[in-house]
Amino acid sequence: MADMKKIQEILMNSIFDVYEKMFFVFLEPMDDAVKYDMAASIRFSGVFNGEIRAYLNTDMARSMVENMLGLEPPEISVKQMEDCAKESINMICGSFLERLSPQAVFDLSVPEGELKSGVFKKDDPGTLNLAFDSDGQLLGITLSIKSSK
Amino acid sequence: MSFNVLVVDDSMSMRAVIKKIITLSGFQMDKCLEASNGRQGLELLADNWVDVILSDINMPEMNGLQFLEELAKNETLREIPVIMITTEGSGERMEEAFKRGAKGFIKKPFLPEQIRKVLYDVIGVGENGRYEEDPRNTDELDF
């Protein structure tokens, strides 16, 4: 498996690709903590196992729905925001694994979403943590690779 | 000539965006049915005829590969072309889908023109609804 620097680069490229192509959101990496209002996660298993989690503030989730579905803010529901958060993590995971191990087959779990608030910090030593900003729309991503065969 | 389409994906946002892309691409769609997994897709197909199916793989209850298997068991339904739209894009997973009867494959995240190209390739029609030899004469779409 690639070293952590390479893994981080691959993960970042996957995140940029998904957010730009599907949600028309252009992210800037940042070091600040992310105050989030919802989270989404997906697990994967194969030649190695792990989990990717996303932490989004409401502004980010609303913007994703607005851009993807062409809806105006008053029409946007929490359910749609949660659905977009789950689908984004699904696409990031698939894209990341394909770039990291193109020949390997992984099983992905069905993404799960959760409405909860908190603060995402980049200093958790057990996971690879990335934070992004797009005009106040905030996103935090963690990758944990739990075991390898 | 217009077509009936079935979109199978557990994400309502993804179903909506696929439907929107198909509509905006000029594809002559009569009816667009939606299902959130393979089981629901089969239930809809019991009462409705569609000309093409676009299906995700990673879904709860009945995933896209199981859905393909069930379609293949039915003499009528196995004739409907199925395009997989999925995040799971490894060569082996694609091969698995094609072996089970898929006719096209689109990886998420996708660009609108990718859906249009594969859709036209699989169903064999151009924007005017006529069957064409090679429909790859598409310009970039601006959404």
Describe the structure.
The complex is a heterodimer of chains A (149) and B (143). With 149 residues, chain A is an alpha+beta fold. Chain A has a single domain (4-147), classed as Chemotaxis protein chec, CATH 3.40.1550. Chain A is built from three helices and nine strands. Chain A has helices at 4-23, 58-69, 78-100; strands at residues 28-30, 34-36, 38-45, 48-56, 107-108, 112-114, 118-120, 128-134, 137-148. In chain A, strands 1, 3, 4, 5, 6, 8 and 9 form a seven-stranded antiparallel beta sheet that branches. Chain A has a two-stranded antiparallel ribbon with strand order 2-7. The mean pLDDT of chain A is 93. Chain B is α/β, with parallel strands linked by helices and 143 residues long. Chain B has one domain (3-131): Response regulator (Rossmann fold, 3-Layer(aba) Sandwich). In chain B, 38% of the residues lie in helices and 18% in strands. Chain B has helices at 12-24, 38-47, 64-73, 91-99, 112-123, and strands spanning 3-8, 29-35, 52-55, 82-86, 104-107. In chain B, strands 2-1-3-4-5 form a five-stranded parallel beta sheet, sandwiched between helices. In chain B, α4 links the parallel β4 (82-86) and β5 (104-107). In chain B, α2 packs parallel to α3. The longest helix of chain B has 13 residues, at 12-24. Mean pLDDT of chain B is 86; it is low at 133-143. Classes of the chains: A alpha+beta (149), B alpha/beta (143).
